[in-house]
Amino acid sequence: MKTHHYIFLTTALFVILFYDQDLGLNLGILGILYAVLTFFKTVEKNKTRTFYILTVTSILSSIAFAWYGDFPSFLAVVSSLLLLAYKSKNRRMKILLLIPVFVVNSCTSICRIFMLDDWLPKGNVSGVWQKIMAFVLIPLLLLSVFFGIYAAGSDLFAALFTDYELDLNLWQVFCLTVLGFFIAFNYWNYAVEKLIYKNNQFLDNDFQKDVQAPKATYSFLDLDAERISGIVSFFSLNILLVFFIGTYNYEQFYEASKTPVQLSEETHERVNAVILSIVMAILVIMFYFKSGFNFDPKAKLMKTLAKIWIFLNAVLILSAAVKNYEYIVNYAFTYKRLGVFAFLLLSLIGLGLTFIKIQKRKRNAFLFNTMVWYFYVIILVCSYFNWGGFITSQNMKRKDFAVNYHFGSVNFSEKNLLKYAEEKNNLKLKKNLQNKIKSEKAKTFLSKIGYYETIK
């Protein structure tokens, strides 16, 4: 099939799947269809290991949305399919250019749609398509336009058709067709501008040979002075960080106990301070090791001090993680507290990649190119696993289990709450849960959420 066949086919599927439906199983089906069609449309040379992995994750993300239908799974479907489409045509393009490519295409698609010669076949159209176009589509379009004109000019003419009612929401069909065509057109027929192609080389992970010679970054500061500045800066920052780790851990583990509200505020403030500190630490290292110092034989001491600083920042992250775990043990699991672990994990990964950057003499772009993939993995983990069920199952073991909070604020906790209601003989909770599950099961087939269909 040609590109226009994929565009029209997926537009029709979009209308069929979403007409008079809510988001649910339909988006999962559409995501799987997009992934499968992309696989068959992609040329063999672009079917790299990354492409195969993205094909699998796109299908799994679509299944996850069909099962949960929540925002993390929606984000996983969108990001997976965008990455898949991007890599299916541009196996060497850096992932950081994905957003500019699709933003530019979305903004220019209105103009590109009317450039028919660029995406519709120019010749050798089969006789069947010619007949459909000539005998059906064009006459139907003209008939619809003139019917509207005549109906507006003659009440008697319009009255001839008032006794016939078409059980079809034409406005909804029109809107779904426009939206489906917009999505399909930008997915199957996106273009990478020359300016973006030219900038791809600036995002390479490795240095070019012509920039490996050590040289001063600024004209007002020679190489030796800049090197000494780095040594003094990293030495001072290491000393400062050692004292901060000491005071930070003392405040966390040895100060007098506080109220839950005070402890919550202080924990979040300290975790935010740790994450900000890690980001600033990485930026400082990127500043000093952005070019020639990676290959400077006299910069060994500065590299050592930078690696020590990375290690001390990792200790700081582990201290914050231990405190967050203690906070959870005392005051139960929540989405935010699990989210803290996710941010701390990403910070630790960032430090590890920074160490690799120094050790392997990589460019700063290496950090961004690699971290994007770790963010993507975090999105997948959030979408594939039932974190609401995990939170509820763990908190049910506590004596201070907050039933109303888990019923109203924790997603996909119904199975565990039903079990809890039966154990505690809580008839009101059981009835509320059954009503909620019943309303979910009452949805039409394409709007259903798989999770609720498994609850008996």
TrEMBL record:
Pfam families: DUF4153. InterPro entries: DUF4153. The keyword Transmembrane helix applies. The keyword Transmembrane helix applies. Keywords: Membrane, Transmembrane, Transmembrane helix. The chain crosses the membrane at residues 6-37, 49-67, 73-88, 95-115, 135-161, 168-188, 228-250, 271-288, 308-326, 338-359, 371-391. This is DUF4173 domain-containing protein. It comes from Chryseobacterium joostei.
